[in-house]
Amino acid sequence: MKSVHFGAGNIGRGFIGKLLSDAHVEVTFADVDDQIIDQLNTLHTYNVKVVGSDCQTEVVSSVNAINSNSDDLIDLIGETNLITTAVGPNVLAIIAKKIAQGLALRFEANNDEPLNIIACENMIRGTSYIKKEVYKHLDEKYHEKMDRLVGFVDSAVDRIVPPSEAANDPLEVTVESFSEWIVDEQQFKGEIPAIDGMQKTDDLMAFIERKLFTLNTGHIMTAYLGALAGHKTVKEAIDDDVIRTQVRQAMQESGEVLIKRYGFDRELHNAYIEKIIGRFANPYLHDEIDRVGRQPIRKLGENDRLVKPLLGTIEYGTDNTMLLKGIAAAFKYTNSDDPQALELQTSLESIGFLATLAKYTGLAPTSKEALEIERLFTAMQ
User: Fold this and answer.
1) Is 282 within 8 Å of 52 (Cβ atoms)?
2) Domain with 51 in it: what CATH number?
3) Are residues 175 and 270 part of one domain?
4) CA distance 358 to 344
5) What tens digit of pLDDT does each residue of 302-344 get?
6) What is the Cα–Cα distance from 78 to 149, expressed in whole angstroms?
7) Second label for 134, Cα 20 to 30 Å away, from 80, 198, 332, 345?
8) CA distances from 128 to 29, 96, 380 (A)
9) 284 and 317 belong to one structural domain
């Protein structure tokens, strides 16, 4: 089985690329980093440091790489069985054109083998998004074949992959031992590939929101509250008893929405929360707060990890005390190397807090939640 994986960064190599290779899938990474491409094509192997209760190094082998801008990639898409991505939500629209070109070549060659595409991003239904983008670039005469032969499979992914500290080996990746890759089994075309670590479900949204409302909400709460307290890493922040208590409360508030919406078992979900807190405290993961906290505008969006669970608490009339504090802390986050953090601070200075809150979160500036977030923001040091 052949696959093309867009994104040869740490997540691509350490998570999806590794799972595919472990399942004996022939993996070709598509990327724009010539140094990474050259090294992968020279060595065809790299190390993944897997850290949990202990630390062990596993070897990924028999991989190749290609430049995402190369015409050879179009030929490769024409004959592959699986396309996956780990490029970040903002890049999906860019690679959609190349995928469309590959599909056109595939259909012209009368290749009627099913092809499945899975976007593995921190994005709700990212594959459905890229499907729309591919349609824009694909001639209408191919649409019937795409509908019949190409599966666009939404997924939920969960694995902490901090920057590697192996300065002498740019290919080495560090990942936590925990990983979760859940796919919508109803969206595949043809036979679903057997890949260890890829879990199938017919209720993907429940798992998407469980991950978003728990791992992502807890992670960003830890980062923004940790930044306020002067911590530099996620572990430092979660080891702070005050922050740990607040993060747990925020995840319980978002968890109450999940319990009411999807019928999750309360005891099991609380155990899931404790497991995630334990992951944040992993002594082998040097995960900097600025990596987790970056792009605050995206993370304050109404469909993202802070505001979406807050809207759920409003819908069900449940407690949201700590989620409100987390949103206030997001507006306190500063990072001179992050354009979104700079834009947010500029907006606060130019139009004030409530207008900025409404602009980036969609919350009505006269709502009681907005007024409470403003009060918390003003009180924060």
Assistant:
1) yes
2) 3.40.50.720
3) no
4) 12
5) 999 999 999 999 999 999 999 999 999 999 999 999 999 999 9
6) 13
7) 198
8) 22, 12, 39
9) yes
